[in-house]
Amino acid sequence: MLEGLKQEVYKANIELVKQGLVIHTWGNVSGRDPESGLVVIKPSGLDYGSMKSDDMVVIDTDGRMVEGRYKPSTDAPTHLLIYRHYSSVGGIVHTHSAFATSWAQAGKDIPPLGTTHADHYYGAIPCTRLLTEEEVNGDYESNTGKVIVERMEGLDPLAVPSVLVNRHGPFCWGLDAEEAVYNAVALEEIARIAFYTVLLGRSEPVDNYLLDKHFTRKHGKDSYYGQ
Hints:
The protein is α+β, with helices and mostly antiparallel strands and 227 residues long. The protein is built from eight helices and seven strands. The chain has helices at residues 3-18, 76-85, 98-106, 115-118, 133-137, 140-151, 177-199, 208-216; strands at 27-32, 39-41, 57-59, 65-67, 91-95, 162-165, 169-174. It has a seven-stranded antiparallel β-sheet, with helices on both faces. The longest helix is centred in the last third of the chain and has 23 residues, at 177-199.
């Protein structure tokens, strides 16, 4: 079942390791099948070195296992809630990459400090509020998804394809699993550059006209970057 999507999600998970965004078992990628709505996701706690495409788990929109011999990622409810709210999202990545997670642990948005950021994100990369004690002790993973959706209110998820969960780490998404990984790689580099920029004493965002120029030349109907 969904063998092509399993292969895509498997490769995306392995790419996180190749890009240095995860160590041990710290991360996961999922992908959604546009026809059935079923989701393929990495198994919980499975070592990347021994993982195969056949190990990917298929779940339905309520989180019930449809196919697989392992339990799905514990973050599956967070993924499912994001999918439920954004029909345009076809792939989701969660990592604990160092620089993005540093901003998340500080509880800070990443401001658009220059054109590298503006090329990829149309505005600040937002950080959620802290979950309450009741939210943590309740349906924790679903509540994590809820604070993501709450923080993203009014934002285009494809123009700002990442969020930082306060005291936790980044979630990124895209049209498919491959694009979600691409966005996770971009986020980590932008978070690193922003960290050093703030360390050097500049924290003011770029002017809107520069943000607009750099984002729209790469995205949207009037884009002209590339071949």
